[in-house]
């Protein structure tokens, strides 16, 4: 990695390390600095979530996250070895997908790393079918989070601006898909507590229906040049209705009648994380963050 990289080079490209054999990697410590994290522990949590996502995508964490160490100088002048990781491009992509979305640099990183890593995601029906129900839930929930972001961007371009506007817009999609039920109605029907997200309490079939709704609504809004809040709401409602009608024509169960899984997505992720830690699949070096000088 050259210290004299041109100013137009991406900050993520600047910290890329290349070996003589052409292999590339990124230092987690350096990536943390670029993303604006002040505390290693906070960034370490994003790494752990990324490892779980890596496993759920069918990849081996050891191929993408390599525990290593880095020497740092403390306030006393002493040097100490602290935890670090050598990350593949795919590992960086997963970390940024799990990083703080409020940071503007995170959005830039998502674009940078997505170009070469999207193809590594599990995307075909055969691979999805080979997963367990809980693995499918985790994968579909992650995809739905991504596509809801795209849907929000499409809606915003059509004139859905405020948080209230977007809540109404989302309700129209749910009403079309769930037979006039709004988000709060689905929340109540599932018996969820305040603060629990309905998407985190859906099985894979229900998540897949919502993923199809979200992707098709975003595409139609952009394709048709939909303009105005009312038009965007109507489009989202119509797409939801079409998805519902397709389920009916195929003899499927209406989404509001599908069972609510006993475990939430967050519980599944925590369980997966504990299992990885116990099996030593989670690549943790083990050093603590040095105290502040």
Describe the structure.
By secondary structure, the chain is an alpha+beta fold. It has two domains: 11-120 and 274-278, no CATH class; 125-262, no CATH class. It is 54% helix and 9% strand. It contains twelve helices and four strands. It has helices at residues 11-14, 28-34, 40-56, 89-97, 104-117, 125-129, 133-158, 163-177, 183-189, 204-223, 229-249, 265-278; strands spanning 16-18, 24-27, 65-73, 79-87. Strands 1-2-4-3 form a four-stranded antiparallel β-sheet. Helix 3 (40-56) crosses helix 12 (265-278), helix 4 crosses helix 5 and helix 10 crosses helix 11 (229-249). It is globular, with a radius of gyration of 22 Å.
Flag low-confidence runs.
1-8, 118-124
Question: Which sequence of SSEs, written as H and E, runs from N to C?
Answer: HEEHHEEHHHHHHHHH
Question: Into which percent range does the helicity of residues fall?
Answer: 40-55%
Strand fraction: 5-15%
How many domains, in number, for the residues? 2
* Major sheet summary line: 4 strands, antiparallel
Helix vs. strand class:
alpha+beta
Question: Can I get a quick summary?
Answer:
The chain has 293 residues and is α+β, with helices and mostly antiparallel strands.
